[in-house]
Amino acid sequence: MHVQTFTTLVIDVPVGPRRRSAVVVVPVIQPPAAGWPIVLAFHGGQTHPELMRRFSGLDQLAADGRAIVVYPAGTGSREGMLTWNGGNCCGEALADQSQDVEFVRELLNAVAGRLPIDQSRIHATGMSNGAMMAYRVAAELADRVASIAPVAGPLALASIAPRRPVPVLHFHGTLDQFTPLEGGIGRRSVTRVSHRPILEGLLDWVHANGCSPECVRETVACSDEGISIARFTWSPMLSAGGEVVFYRLEGGGHTWPGRRPDSFYLGPSAISLDATHIIWGFFVKHPMPPMR
Q1: How many CB atoms lie within 10 A of CB 213?
Q2: Which of 163, 186, 205, 266 is least enclosed by beta carbons within 10 angstroms?
Q3: Mean pLDDT across the chain, nearest whole number?
Q4: Are 206 and 224 in contact (CB under 8 A)?
Q5: How far apart are CA 105 and CA 199, in angstroms?
Q6: Rounded to 5 degrees, what are φ and ψ at 66?
Q7: What's the average model confidence in pLDDT over 151-165?
Q8: CA nearest 260: which of 270, 252, 251, 250?
């Protein structure tokens, strides 16, 4: 018999003239003394929170009693076709200049008003347009977000100036036809936005985080046919800096490593690389440092 090990609720918050919502997945066990860590999980463009739950498998973090997982909903006039204002992308959220950063700030306040939260362990991940949103909250809410792990989406801001170094973990496939590794307009792009190259955005974070410009390259074991993985790590030169880690998936598509995509249009996925496990390890390693 399957025993449900988490509970789900929907939290609504007012942001300007709109009411915004998020699906919140909460462990059923007693919280840690310091409160629960939070993982913000931003869905991809023209999708919705429930699809992100299925796509990423992040509910497992709540099922295992490790964190509350918060799936915010973007905006859009068509139900289930929601986007984020990540910078230069995407869709109606960009066109309407949706106040998505303010939404995240108010949402975190609302979650903390309902549940015991560890404010030093608020992290963000996201897929595609959701990855762009994770980058944006790191750049503009560095006072709240400890570290981020974008998947298959570039930095969509022209420049960044975070209040403090924010550790970054990024996953990207070389065969991504939606947000190309080398930048530009993806062959399967719906928005037809010209994206920044992934490495260019990562080097912005290398600079902002006080990392050495020299990176360490390591080969990561992979049993998936046609896929090989390299990990690049830029380490901070000072203890107060934040590392930048990039998993480059040669032969990988617009997918979440470790998960089988719903559509073959998204391309190959590195099933043997458990991105959710790696992301959680990164978040555990990088809580918010004490304020000086």
Answers
A1: 9
A2: 163
A3: 95
A4: no
A5: 28
A6: -100, -35
A7: 97
A8: 270
Could you state, in order of their start, the residue ranges of all structural domains in the chain? 6-285
Q: Per-residue DSSP letters for 25-85?
A: EEESSPPPTT-EEEEEEEPPTTB-HHHHHHHH-THHHHHTTS-EEEEE--B-SSTT-BB--
DSSP state of 120: E
Q: Is 113 exposed, middle or buried (0-12, 13-18, 19+ CB in 10 A)?
A: exposed
Q: Cis omega (within 30 of 0) on the bond before 89?
A: no
Distance CA 188, CA 200 (A): 22
Torsion sign, CA atoms 45, 201, 163, 32: positive
Q: How many CB atoms lie within 10 A of CB 170?
A: 26
Q: Which residues of 152-168 are buried (b: 16+ CB within 10 A; e: fewer)?
A: bbbbbbeebebebbbbb
CATH label, 6-285, candidates 3.40.50.1820, 3.90.1150.10, 3.40.50.720, 3.50.80.10: 3.40.50.1820
What is the spatial distance between Cα 289 and Cα 292, in angstroms, rounded to a whole number?
A: 9
Question: Is the overall model pTM greater than 0.85, yes or no?
Answer: yes
Cα separation, 71 vs 104, in Å, equals 11
SS3 call for 176: coil
